[in-house]
Amino acid sequence: MNDQANSVDERYATTPATLTSWSRQDTTWMLGLFGTAIGAGTLFLPINAGLGGFWPLVILALLAFPMTFFAHRGLTRFVLSGREGSDITDVVEEHFGIKAGALITLLYFFAIFPILLIYSVALTNTVSSFMEHQLHIMPPPRAILAFVLILGLLAVVRCGEQVIVKAMSLMVYPFIVALLFLAVYLVPHWNGGILSTASEVPAPSALLNTLWLAIPVMVFSFNHSPIISAFAVDQKRQYGVHAEERSSQILSRAHLLMVAMVLFFVFSCVLTLSPAQLAEAKAQNLSILSYLANHFDNPTIAFAAPLIAFVAIAKSFLGHYIGASEGLKGLVVKTGRRPAPKTLDRMTAAFMLVVCWIVATLNPSILGMIETLGGPVIASILFLMPMYAIRKVPAMAKYRGQASNVFVTAVGLVAITALVYSLIA
């Protein structure tokens, strides 16, 4: 026991007695978390959230911050509860055993990797459409275009995790400006839109049913669980015993930025378009940007929309790559093979390049279903696993008895049951 205490003291020997002031690195992580969460899904959120009517949207807006903050804080605390340098797959094995660790690692990989494939297809489609319709040039063959785009993103990946986070944080700035520009541009076109349903107070059963099916949309529009493990490991390396306090500060600021930006964009869209128009956009399988470009026939939006989509998809790709590669490396290690770190990085990058390139070239329509199938797994890892650990793991016992634990568990169960119901229906 004394040896263990001494090792802990040595681990945090260089950690300051008090928490240091906010640093540039903290800002970089805050924007990196924002960049992973706010991506292509945000461009469909106004359609999905607005179709439920005014009152469900207001309730979802009020729930947005606690839903996302408490869940991601719980997952961060879970990773921080492990040994120094342990990622999420190592912490699961440490707390729940080798078999559980292997199972969670497998589920973690297959929950995130399909989303990476979806972004590969979406990125190729966006650039191809932009070249054809806005630049009026013939795009190269799909196989070549997909290969160049994915290789370009993986070139950023090869520079290391810190470069990925920094690149994502830099890409956040134009994305924030673009979202603000669109939201403000729509203000003169507000015509009440969804307010037409404000006088129609739904019956309690109908309201609950609408919220039940809409919560997963809200949850996964703000999801940045793939980068949480790397975030927690870096916080522990930088702040030691103060890692939980500083990571909570970074998470709270990141989520306030997410919620404020996205909800302003969502409300601006739904106040501009009627429920019938939102339903039309969903029937046409268009993002809100594409629908607005067609609706207004405005060259500025028509040109800006694909550029915004490109930035959104690219930064989300980078954030999800961190989680997917982490899961794949964990699977390789758990087979008993332990290649050198550089060799493992190269193997992972090569696998990701080949599979993403093949899928982006084939452009299969089944990817939406794969994303939905990964939803319950993501909800289980993000919402339920950390809450279970708080109940069972001594290292997390200090977090027991908090009301937020009940709230996160309830939202997780709602998200999972709604997704399963949608699949069955």
From TrEMBL:
Region forming the signal peptide:
none
Q: Which UniProt keywords apply?
A: Amino-acid transport, Cell inner membrane, Cell membrane, Kinase, Membrane, Serine/threonine-protein kinase, Symport, Transferase, Transmembrane, Transmembrane helix, Transport
Q: What is its main location?
A: membrane
Q: Which organism is it from?
A: Pseudomonas libanensis
Membrane topology per record: Multi-pass membrane protein
Instruction: Provide a Gene Ontology MF annotation, just one.
Output: protein serine/threonine kinase activity
The record's annotation in InterPro entries points to:
Amino_acid_transport_2 (IPR018227), Hydroxy_aa_transpt (IPR004694)
Q: Which NCBIfam families match?
A: stp
- Tell me which domain of life the UniProt entry assigns to the organism this sequence originates from: Bacteria
Residue ranges annotated as transmembrane are 29-47, 53-75, 96-122, 142-160, 172-191, 211-233, 254-273, 301-322, 343-360, 366-385, 406-424
- Record's subcellular location: Cell inner membrane
Q: What is this protein called?
A: Serine/threonine protein kinase
Recorded catalytic activity of this chain's protein: L-serine(in) + H(+)(in) = L-serine(out) + H(+)(out)
